[in-house]
Design goal:
Mean pLDDT of chain B: 91
Largest sheet of chain A: 6 strands, mixed
Largest interface: A-B, 33 and 31 residues
Structural class of chain B: mainly alpha
Structural class of chain A: alpha/beta
Number of helices of chain A: 8
Mean pLDDT of chain A: 93
Number of strands of chain B: 0
Largest sheet of chain B: none
Oligomer: heterodimer
Shape of chain A: globular
Order of helices and strands of chain A: EEEHEEHEHHHEHEHEEHEE
Helix content of chain A: 25-40%
Chain lengths: ~250, ~350
């Protein structure tokens, strides 16, 4: 589905963020990306969405080089869900989600009745129909995140990139978003998610990538995470404790 | 409670049509509503056997004096409101107005130049048109020179060019003949439709209608543009393409309006906000409402301008007086959005 080969990116000569990053992702699988602030997690996403072009390296999406797609084709393969969307006007949730239809709309056209029906269906599937008429900018963080997911589903991509979807959310909403992400993968989407919480990587399973200071990336299973490595990259003592009731490890600071 | 969209459109069209007939009857030469209606009907439906029951003078007044002026007011009101809404969507800025990119100040200096050179009024309009185009071209080329095509640089370029042309305007007023040219420049700057004729109405209406059609075509995409360049790209919308088309159409609409009517403030800023209160943020619904309310507002303002006193009141003065308290009310209603 997605293959990244020897990706390098630097903002300038003194700030290199991604160094020889390579990985591949199957359809329907989840990858979590961990790493301290500023190592290039968001930059990696920007490269995958062609918002930034890497210094060198290849990104192969669905069998073809990323640069061979038009804007609309690319948006119907991969999409990015970021926390920082700012709508300058009072769009309703319905109007906002509808924008995800863009890849299928002609340059001077607008959505058809079937597109409006799709929006209702997706809102119902995510059980958020009750705030369809609310103003997007006035929603809570958790609600906004669910609406963004609805918009991404309307876009009908194969790969969804979640940029720190759990920051700013309370612990209940964090778990809700993780459950939705798991469901998305079961439904066949490939999901990559960046997070600051190693527990989320352990909970989601799949592949876990660690970006080290300097921009090198190591890929493994969440079980292969080690307390020493995590402590090293975050520069604080961290412990991985096995919690018997849960049957998994938990990452504890202190 | 919100009025259903189609009902609202029907109401606005009915109001505009009623105002259109009523404002033609208003003026120093008395005309009745049925008289005006029959004169217009006989022209539009020339196949109908309508007997001429009106004085020949009435027909001349309607066709050559009032109809061009009323039509110009409607077109210009619609154009400024649409241009304002387009700029606001494109630049994600609720405070954007049609003179955002320096169109008005450029047109002003063009008009002033023609007045100072004592050219006929027709050239004043042509020079205003050219001035507006030059100013906008300068604004859009500064970001290219700086190799930074972000919207904020474009907005700053607009401020720079406006400032530059405004000082040019001060210089023009300084050298203008205080007996003849200076009052003409001042009057032009205050905006007026007093000298509009049917040729001008036809000349501006054709390109304006094309621009209205283009704006309707990109109206839904303007919603996505207002999320910014990155979000547009992620959703699959070509930001630069729509920005270019939006700037081009909004500028053509503004420059044509300013060339004919001079500087008329407030309409392009206040009407989009009023329209958003009525139908919400979706530009696909907003644009038609903007066109209708803009036309209604301008028609009302211009009718006051020509009939309130025995002499003309400058249009810009009236739109300012009506616009300011009106805009305060809109901001009060919209306070949640602006907080």
């Amino acid at each position: 589905m997605l293959t990244v080969k020897n990706l390098n990116f630097s903002y300038n000569r003194n700030r290199k963020v991604l160094c020889d990053v390579s990985f591949s992702l199957e359809a329907g699988s989840i990858m979590t990306v961990l790493g301290p602030n500023g190592v290039g997690k968001s930059t990696l996403f920007d490269c995958l969405c062609r918002l930034k072009s890497p210094d060198s390296g290849e990104i192969i999406l669905d069998g073809k080089h990323i640069n061979s797609y038009t804007i609309k084709q690319l948006a119907s393969i991969i999409t990015l869900l970021s926390q920082t969307v700012k709508a300058s006007f009072d769009f309703t949730v319905r109007e906002y989600v509808l924008m995800g239809c863009a890849p299928r709309i002609s340059p001077f056209g607008s959505p058809k009745a079937s597109d409006y029906d799709d929006v209702e269906k997706v809102l119902a599937d995510l059980e958020i129909s009750h705030f369809a008429d609310k103003i997007f900018t006035k929603l809570s963080g958790g609600e906004k995140q669910q609406v963004s997911i609805a918009k991404a589903i309307i876009q009908r991509p194969k790969i969804m990139l979640f940029d720190e979807p759990t920051s700013f959310l309370d612990i209940g909403n964090q778990q809700k978003i993780l459950r939705i992400i798991k469901k998305m993968a079961q439904a066949g989407y490939s999901v990559i998610m960046t997070t600051h919480n190693p527990d989320h990587a352990i909970q989601l399973g799949g592949i876990c990538a660690l970006i080290h200071p300097g921009g090198n990336m190591t890929v493994g299973s969440p079980e292969s995470l080690s307390a020493e490595v995590l402590s090293g990259i975050y520069k604080t003592p961290l412990h991985l404790l096995n919690i018997e009731e849960l049957g998994r490890c938990a990452c504890i600071a202190g | 409670m919100k009025i259903p969209y189609k009902v609202l459109l029907a109401i606005l069209i009915a109001v505009l049509f009623a105002l259109f007939i009523i404002t033609i009857t208003i003026g120093r030469y008395d005309l009745g509503i049925s008289e005006v209606f029959l004169i217009l009907a006989s022209r539009v439906f020339s196949f109908l056997p309508i007997n001429q029951t009106w004085a020949a003078m009435s027909e001349i007044i309607v066709m050559q004096v009032r109809l061009p002026r009323v039509a110009a007011a409607m077109f210009i009101g619609a154009a400024l409101a649409t241009a304002g809404a387009t700029y606001q969507g494109l630049f994600r800025n609720p405070m954007a107005s049609p003179d955002f990119l320096g169109v008005t100040s450029g047109a002003g200096i063009g008009a002033a130049l023609a007045i100072v050179l004592e050219l006929p009024f027709f050239y004043v309009q042509i020079f205003a048109l050219i001035g507006g185009i030059i100013a906008t071209s300068m604004t859009v080329s500064i970001p290219k020179l700086l190799r930074n095509d972000s919207s904020i640089v474009l907005i700053l370029s607009g401020i720079i060019v406006s400032g530059l042309f405004r000082s040019g305007m001060s210089f023009m007023r300084y050298i203008a003949d205080p007996q003849t040219a200076l009052p003409a420049i001042v009057f032009w700057q205050m905006g007026s439709l007093a000298r509009v004729n049917s040729f001008e109405v036809i000349a501006i209406s054709v390109p304006m209608l094309i621009c209205f059609a283009v704006v309707m075509g990109i109206s839904w995409w303007l919603n996505i543009m207002s999320l910014g360049e990155v979000q547009s790209a992620v959703i699959g919308a070509n930001y630069k393409f729509y920005r270019r088309i939006g700037i081009l159409t909004a500028t053509v609409l503004t420059v044509l309006s300013v060339a004919v009517a001079g500087e008329v403030g407030w309409v392009g800023l206040a009407i989009p906000h009023l329209s958003r209160l009525l139908v919400g943020a979706d530009n696909k619904k907003l644009m038609p409402v903007c066109m209708l309310t803009g036309a209604i507002f301008m028609l009302t303002a211009d009718t006051f301008a020509r009939s309130l006193t025995t002499s003309e009141i400058p249009l810009g003065v009236l739109t300012g007086i009506i616009g300011a308290p009106f805009f305060i009310a809109i901001i009060y209603k919209q306070k949640s959005m602006l907080s």
